[in-house]
Amino acid sequence: EPLLLDGVVPYPEEFAVRYRSEGHWTDQTLAEMLFEVVERVPDKTAIIADEVRITYGDLGERVLRFAAGFTDLGINRGDRVVLHLPNVSDYVPILFALFEIGAVPVLALAALRRHEIEYFVEFTEARAYVTIETHAGNDFAALARELEESSPNLEHTVVLATDGTSADVEQLLSHGALGHARRSLPSDVAFLQLSGGTTGQPKVIPHTHEDYLASVRASVKIGAITGDTVQLVVLPLCHSFAMRSPGFLGVLSQGGTIVPTLNGSPDVAFPLIAQHGVTDVSVVPPLALVWLNSSLKERYDLTSLQVLRVGGAKFSAQAAGRVRAELGATVQQSFGMAEGLTTFTGLDEDDDTITSRQGRPTLSADEVVVVDDEGTVVPTGTAGHLWTRGPSTIRGYYRAPEHNAQNFTADGFYKTGDIVLEDERGYLTVVGRSKDQINRGGEKIAPEEVENLLLAFDAVHDVSVVGVPDEMLGERTKAFVVPRAGGDTSLLTLGTIRKFLRDKGLAAYKLPDVVELVDEFERTAVGKVSKLNQRAK
Ligand code: J2J
Questions:
Q1: pLDDT tens by residue, 320-332
Q2: Are 368 and 361 in contact (CB under 8 A)?
Q3: Which residues form ligand 1's pocket by a CB distance below 6 Å?
Q4: What is the residue with the minimal CA distance to atom 13 of ligand 1?
Q5: Are 248 and 270 in contact, with CB atoms under 8 Å apart?
């Protein structure tokens, strides 16, 4: 019986039939993908984390022990479990344990805090919350206790230790191991991922096993992932780029090795590359620049590195052109979105394509159209809005009918909010954005979410949050604030505003970098705040 989660927009049957007959969707779940490899190469190293090597055999065993533990808690197929973890070694076993039992992990960035997590726990009606004691100075053990009090649907919290094993983990692992079996179907929702968002409340993205694996398998080929791949994972494991483009799922599907790390800075990443013979890594543009500009390049042997994949935000052609000479790796540009479509440049393409395009769609069944403001297709080579539909692109956000009506066309194309050019060969160049979102070096911020919180600040009359140009990050966040009449403007500093938002429990990367007080906002002809003009300032 298929799992029916209310609030999920299914793929129309005719598309499902086509995606299966064309081989994009196969009869496999994510858990089955892993256990096939566990059987085939039990002694190969799957994960290297904190000096510990975990073989595929050990990984399979740990997955099945966690699976027994979650089952004992009463977590079943279809139950949502918020997974709020940084790149620690148990991330992968816990994720696959949830896949194994058909539970639906809600993948939350470790950088998120109370404001966001509380919302996701409630919105998805999660039955369990899995986190780590502390991360980046945040006390998530305390957050777990708060959520237990405040969220009626939440029955269990599991808190990992920052070092070593926690009592919660020991308890979970104390139930023996399940046998691997089919407990969910390829068409089931496998997990919920969080969108970068454009609205006050972030949107939730449901992916099925078959839709996700279609993209994983195709990216593996384009990214040249094999059993010999050693992939350093510096991006958050829960992010789409890190998961499937080709990501750690791609590497695990081939029996390669992943090396998750909490920190991608050269002093941590370069020694890991040298020590473990890392061949492959995916990064956001600001980190690529830090690596390129680091003098530590000369100190460590980085010759094993074959592919530096860059995406999440626009990578300049100038920086891309430096990678081969300075890091000895081939650049693979990737443009993609958690909602679905991904594009890559090929590894053996000419330099112009590699440095100045963001790639072409991963799956032969990906449909891409570039349209003007009226929705009319524009000529090849002309900038326009990117709309897309395909075997790995969702048909709607979870439990969001009004938002879906605006962001998907009647025939199921997702309106990405990106402005692109498509060349004759089908390669895309990203030239801009129509959605109200800030891309702060690959980290996505919904201005409306920050604005809504700031409107509750006493001294604030009105606020508009925009991205302004930044050399390293591409964009940083600026808040234009109109003070309340007669209020004390000395209360409105960058420091007080950031503190206010921190106290509200907002993730640190969403805090404004700059604040400017203004008397009023420039308005467009129809009276809307002119964000376009603000972005130039
Ligand atoms: C310009 N903008 C880009 C790029 C993403 C692979 C790679 C990236 C993501 C990702 C992903 C860009 N140049 N190279 O999920 O699987 C902006 C666009 C896009 C939004 C999606 C993957 N690569 N972007 O970044 O869901 O605006 O996914 O719509 O985080 O990032 O962000 P996200």
A1: 999 999 999 999 9
A2: yes
A3: 196, 240-241, 245, 311-314, 333-338, 342, 358, 416, 418, 430, 433, 439, 444
A4: 314
A5: no
- For residue 233, give the amino acid letter: V
From 241, 355, 358, 388, the mutation candidate for ligand 1 (largest count of ligand atoms within 8 A of CB) is 241
CA-closest candidate to residue 420, choices 289, 311, 314: 314
Nearest atom within ligand 1 for CA of residue 247: 16
Separation of alpha carbons 91 and 245, rounded Å: 18
Whether this model's ipTM surpasses 0.95 comes out as: yes
Calpha distance 143→119 (Å, rounded): 13
Give the separation between CA 429 and CA 355, rounded to whole angstroms.
Answer: 10
- Report the alpha-carbon distance of residue 140 to residue 146 in Å, rounded: 9
Q: Which domains does the chain have, with CATH numbers?
A: 27-206 (3.40.50.980), 364-433 (2.30.38.10), 438-535 (3.30.300.30)
Query: CA gyration radius for the chain?
Result: 23
**Beta carbons of 273 and 305 less than 8 angstroms apart:** yes
Digit-coded pLDDT (tens) for 370-416 = 999 999 999 999 999 999 999 999 999 999 999 999 999 999 999 99
Q: Bridge partners of 514?
A: 478
Rounded to 5 degrees, φ, ψ at 171 are -60, -45
Which atom of ligand 1 is closest in space to residue 311's alpha carbon?
A: 14
